[in-house]
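User:
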Amino acid sequence: MFVDFTISPINFEKNINHGGILVLRDVTIEKERQEEVRFMSQHDYLTGLYNRYNFEQEMKRLNTERQLPISIIIGDVNGLKLLNDSFGHLEGDKLLKEVATIFNKATRSEDIVARWGGDEFTVLLPQTTTEDAHRVLDRISDLCDKSMYDIIKPSIAIGIATKTDKSQDILDILNAAEERMYNNKLVEGKKMREQLLENLITMVNRKALDNKSHSENISILVEKYSTYHKLQQQKDELLLLAKYHDIGKIAIVDEILNKPEELDDTEWSRIKAHPEIGSRIVSAVSDIQHISTDILHHHEWFDGTGYPQNLSGNTITLNARILSVLDAYESIVNDKVYREKRSHDEAITEILKGTGNQFDPEIVKLFIQIFEKDNQ
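Assistant: Predicted structure:
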């Protein structure tokens, strides 16, 4: 408890003190608020680590000959944007908190650990050689592997640099660590994004009960369509599209994905968001970002009444127009949670009914040709 007090003398007669009045005031809440403001000015609000400004002040304070060698670690969290696009920023915040915990566990109490930026962390290690800094890196890697964060294993691209002589500029050491971190991220970041992407596909397959077979069946149709029409270069893009076109469903709850009854307006609006979510996800992965627009368009209709952008005709990418027909055929001839399978002839009849409305007439004609050959 904190108390503030004032004393006021009582003078009934001139120059004669008859006592005083003591006023006590409980200032505990005010003190706590002051401490909270002070803490927030020095620390990152999300992780509780030092913020960038305070790290820079500590770096100046510890930049003395007595603290040599001084090592600096800079780490960048791999896959954060992909995680944010897939699950939202609240999930990304959980990963950042987990990484902050890992850095705290891997370092000493006298080390300065800070959140440097959005997905970057820094550690100032006074009286620490490069070899000892690498031992810290080993502990960080080990804690990442043992992390209980359940969506992905935390992965951090790290750079290390050490000041060994008082003539060296500490900012040059910081920049050297940052440059090494970026070099490592070029390799580790790509691997991490690929791993996360495969994890997302696995999770979608678990969430949506028929998604795995749906993608595999469309891939078979892609092979058949591409071979018949000699689309060898385009085939690779279509196969990627078959695999990843529904990856945006990762953000939709299982109950909606597997609901056998008709969806209500709220549930349907969530379903209609998956092309945009999927497009954002794959755009973060360099090897497949070229199909992000195809994913965005794959539920557009030829007459402009599809979603999410109400595009029409050739403003819809060619790959998306092809996938639209293959997707519809596959959904008709195979069992779904919301409908029993129907025959090939029924599927073709249904697709012909949608020609010019849902489907590109030229694509429908090319699609039907691959089955006419089988019947010759």
